[in-house]
């Protein structure tokens, strides 16, 4: 705008007034014609001189007014003033303005338009015409014109290779806009143009300065970071990004937590230091950072808290790596290394003053003893139980008095889950510049160690009991074998109607029950593995009825509900009995005030089994055993861990935490599944799913004092004439076995040791059809005897007799070795059936 005060530049062209005057003159002519026509038509009709005079005066007044409006001498309201003000604003505007009518003629352009475009005299060309001469702007201008003709508005910033006014050959930037407006001459296109080259150069200069600053930060030998109020990284420079393995191309501000780059051991300590840092005060600390690749590198961080846009505290920090510090090998470097070791140490370390409050502490101490003790807000003993606090206070007294060789003390920390801590103390008579520090405390969390020690002691105790149980069970099996054989002999001489027969039958049943208890002892000592038999669960639970009632106690009601035609299952009867008794015992303990225990069995087909919703259980037919109680129940978090080893909810001394884990293992070994359904306060139900066993027509079951479901072998011929060598170190067991086999017609030779058995074999010139041998014997055990006999007779048939499972000694034999097995205690029929089957086998 080239003007002085009160003077406005004249526009280059202004046809808007002339167009308005022409319209007004035309309007005036029309009015005169209408007046003349009115006088001509109506004057003679009314014939009144007054009327003619009235029309004449009105016409004169109208003509004078119209001439005044046309000449601008008369205005209506303030419209003339408003129009003059608007035109004055356009005439003096710094932006070039131009109006084009519907015919494309320029009806107005201000002086700024002339200065920007270089037009000072002659015809005024439109912007569309001027910019069309510049190829780099022609397309954009064409689009602007089409938008305006369609009734729309638009704006573009155009870059021309040279100035539009021709005064410079350097590139210039222009902002061009267009919009339609309605004026006295109709709809016009209002174009505006502004030279924004200076603004663009200022922006480019600012951008270059910003880029230089960013480049300086990115290439600085230190890392820079900023976080938001939630400690998420809002900025990192290239140096720090390189150290932390952050890809800046994919960096998204305020998405990555700063704590992702701190070790877990240092995170809580760092947070507490930041929380205690006053606003706008710097803090310097040495700690380890963890990169995205998991590498650890030490760094010194200088940080301060600032307010973000919302007034919340955020962090700004400088990170310096050791290799970038000039003082890395000097005194400050040594201090930095010490600080790093101090803060990253897994052992809790703290210094105490004379009042037993903490002066300095590391992250491990804060995690162990809590923020209050670490910040010195309370004495360290306040974090301990009462008795532990007294023990530590006594040791602290000695360290504060400068005593040496203070023995460590084990203390217990307060909390929902008390933790065991071993504390070491050392005196600081010479504080080395830290006059408030009088003692150093070192602490190690030994909770897990204590737990392992207790478990080890418990396992040692259990192993000792197991060894004792195993030894007793071995001897007990020999006794039961003699009892069983003797009862069999006696029952052969008594008819079922004999009064003594029932007594003998009771002795035999008791011996069978004792044999089952021995198997449980062997299982406890881990010397008995699964020996599955085909079982009817209704019969198994019925046989346990008296025992289960004793386990349940007088205050508990025991109910049994069994479905009819129960499918058979394959399981070890002794271990299955252990499962039932354990579940009943646990149900009793869950009802201290008494209640009801219900044991039920029924068949569950594949479709119903799937309805239970257990994903790991395959679609199959099962026999379901449920043990339900009306006790206290258990919360979900307990139910999830109920089968874990050593997990127990009972008081110390009332449970080992092994019962249900053994139950789980037994059911899994039987190819079954066990689940618990419980609600706190509503009791618990344990469900056992055992796969249905499909019986072959020719299949029977080996008897081991257990009831057979089907016994097609009962009528088989158990007699024979083969030569048998029986090896047993127990005289009574050997005598009963020899007698039983001779009664079946066999030629039996006996030996009381492995060495004697080899001598007998040589005496018989190796003419022995079968060897029946005990496993555990003095001088030479059964497996050694088998290996020696294989040297003489490679095809010798061999049966081992033992109270232990065959897997317990089979590992001492060559792989693939073939032999039979008979478990103690056994009846006459068990022995005869096993011998007959072995002799009839092709191997």
TrEMBL record:
Q: Give the Pfam families listed for this entry.
A: HATPase_c (PF02518), PAS (PF00989), PAS_4 (PF08448), PAS_9 (PF13426), Response_reg (PF00072)
Q: Where are the transmembrane segments?
A: 25-43, 49-74
A GO BP annotation:
regulation of DNA-templated transcription
Residues annotated as carrying 4-aspartylphosphate in the record are 774
Ranges of residues in domain Histidine kinase: 471-694
SMART domains linked to this entry: HATPase_c, HisKA, PAS, REC
Q: Which PROSITE patterns match?
A: HIS_KIN, RESPONSE_REGULATORY
Provide this UniProt record's keywords sorted from A to Z.
Answer: ATP-binding, Kinase, Membrane, Nucleotide-binding, Phosphoprotein, Transferase, Transmembrane, Transmembrane helix, Two-component regulatory system
| Enzymatic reactions | ATP + protein L-histidine = ADP + protein N-phospho-L-histidine
Q: Where is the Response regulatory domain?
A: 723-839
Could you tell me the EC number(s) of this protein?
2.7.13.3
Entry keyword annotation includes S-adenosyl-L-methionine = no
Q: Which GO terms describe its molecular function?
A: ATP binding; phosphorelay sensor kinase activity
Where is coiled-coil annotated? none
The main enzyme category here is: transferase
Extract the NCBIfam families matched here.
HisKinCckABruc (NF046020), sensory_box (TIGR00229)
Name of the protein described by the UniProt record:
histidine kinase
């Amino acid at each position: 705008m080239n003007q002085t005060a009160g003077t406005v530049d004249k526009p280059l062209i202004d046809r808007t007034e002339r167009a308005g005057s022409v319209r007004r003159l035309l309007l005036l002519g029309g009015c005169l014609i209408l007046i003349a026509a009115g006088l001509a038509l109506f004057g003679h009709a009314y014939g009144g001189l007054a009327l003619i005079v009235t029309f004449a005066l009105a016409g004169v007044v109208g003509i004078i007014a119209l001439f005044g409006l046309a000449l601008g001498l008369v205005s209506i309201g303030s419209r003339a003033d408003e129009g003059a003000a608007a035109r004055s604003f356009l005439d003096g505007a710094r932006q070039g303005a131009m109006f084009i009518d519907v015919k494309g003629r320029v009806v107005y352009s201000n002086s700024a338009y002339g200065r920007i475009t270089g037009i000072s005299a002659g015809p005024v060309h439109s912007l569309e015409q001027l910019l069309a001469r510049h190829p780099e702007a022609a397309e954009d201008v064409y689009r602007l014109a089409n938008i305006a003709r369609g009734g729309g508005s638009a704006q573009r910033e155009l870059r021309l290779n040279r100035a539009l006014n021709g005064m410079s050959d350097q590139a210039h930037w222009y902002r061009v806009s267009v919009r339609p407006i309605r004026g006295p001459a109709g709809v016009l296109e209002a174009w505006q143009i502004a030279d924004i080259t200076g603004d663009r150069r200022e922006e480019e200069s600012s951008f270059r300065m910003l880029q230089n600053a960013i480049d300086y930060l990115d290439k600085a030998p230190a890392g820079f970071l900023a976080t938001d109020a939630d400690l998420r990284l809002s900025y990192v420079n290239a140096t720090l990004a390189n150290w932390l393995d952050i890809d800046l191309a994919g960096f998204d501000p305020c998405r990555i937590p700063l704590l992702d780059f701190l070790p877990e051991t240092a995170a809580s300590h760092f947070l507490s230091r930041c929380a205690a840092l006053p606003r706008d005060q710097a803090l310097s600390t040495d700690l380890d950072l963890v990169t995205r690749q998991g590498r650890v590198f030490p760094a010194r961080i200088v940080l301060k808290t600032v307010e973000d846009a919302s007034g919340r505290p955020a962090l700004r920090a400088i990170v310096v790596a050791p290799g970038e510090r000039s003082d890395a090998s000097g005194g400050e470097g040594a201090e930095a290394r010490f600080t790093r070791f101090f803060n990253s140490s897994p052992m809790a370390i703290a210094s105490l003053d004379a009042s037993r409050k903490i002066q300095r502490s590391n992250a491990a101490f804060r995690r162990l003893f809590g923020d209050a003790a670490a910040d010195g807000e309370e004495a360290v003993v306040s974090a301990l139980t009462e008795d532990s606090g007294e023990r530590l206070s006594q040791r602290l007294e000695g360290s504060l008095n400068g005593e040496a060789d203070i023995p460590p003390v084990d203390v217990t920390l307060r909390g929902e889950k008390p933790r065991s801590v071993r504390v070491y103390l050392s005196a600081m008579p010479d504080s080395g510049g830290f006059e408030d520090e009088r003692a150093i405390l070192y602490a190690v969390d030994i909770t897990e160690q204590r737990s392992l020690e207790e478990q080890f002691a418990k396992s040692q105790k259990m192993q000792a009991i197991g060894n004792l149980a195993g030894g007793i069970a071995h001897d007990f099996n020999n006794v039961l074998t003699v009892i069983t054989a003797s009862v069999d002999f006696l029952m052969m001489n008594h008819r079922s109607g004999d009064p003594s027969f029932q007594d003998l039958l009771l002795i035999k049943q008791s011996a069978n029950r004792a044999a089952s208890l021995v198997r449980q002892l062997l299982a406890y000592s881990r010397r008995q593995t699964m020996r599955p038999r085909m079982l009817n669960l209704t019969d198994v639970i019925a046989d346990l009825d008296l025992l289960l009632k004793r386990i349940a106690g007088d205050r508990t009601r025991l109910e049994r509900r069994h479905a009819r035609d129960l499918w058979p299952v394959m399981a070890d009867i002794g271990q299955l009995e252990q499962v039932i008794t354990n579940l009943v015992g646990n149900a009793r303990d869950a009802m201290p005030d008494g209640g009801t225990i219900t044991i039920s069995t029924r068949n569950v087909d594949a479709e119903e089994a799937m309805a239970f919703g257990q994903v790991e259980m395959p679609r199959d037919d099962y026999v379901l055993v449920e043990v339900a109680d009306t006790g206290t129940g258990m919360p979900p978090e307990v139910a999830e861990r109920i089968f874990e080893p050593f997990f127990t909810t009972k008081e110390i001394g009332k449970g080992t935490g092994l019962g249900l884990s053994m139950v789980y293992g037994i059911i899994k070994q039987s190819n079954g599944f066990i689940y618990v359904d419980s609600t706190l306060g509503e009791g618990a139900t344990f469900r056992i799913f055992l796969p249905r066993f499909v019986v072959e027509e020719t299949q029977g079951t080996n008897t081991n004092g257990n009831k057979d479901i089907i016994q097609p072998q009962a009528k088989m011929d158990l007699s024979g004439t083969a030569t048998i060598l029986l090896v047993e170190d127990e005289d009574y067991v050997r005598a009963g076995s020899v007698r039983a086999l001779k009664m079946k017609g066999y030629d039996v030779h006996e030996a009381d040791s492995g060495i004697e058995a080899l001598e007998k074999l040589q005496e018989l010139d190796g003419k022995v059809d079968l060897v029946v041998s005990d496993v555990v014997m003095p001088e030479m055990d059964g497996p050694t005897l088998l290996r020696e006999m294989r040297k003489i007779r490679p095809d010798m048939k061999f049966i081992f007799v033992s109270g232990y499972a065959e897997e317990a000694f089979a590992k001492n034999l060559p792989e693939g070795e073939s032999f039979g097995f008979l478990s103690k205690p056994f009846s006459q029929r068990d022995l005869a059936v096993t011998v007959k089957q072995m002799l009839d086998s092709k191997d």
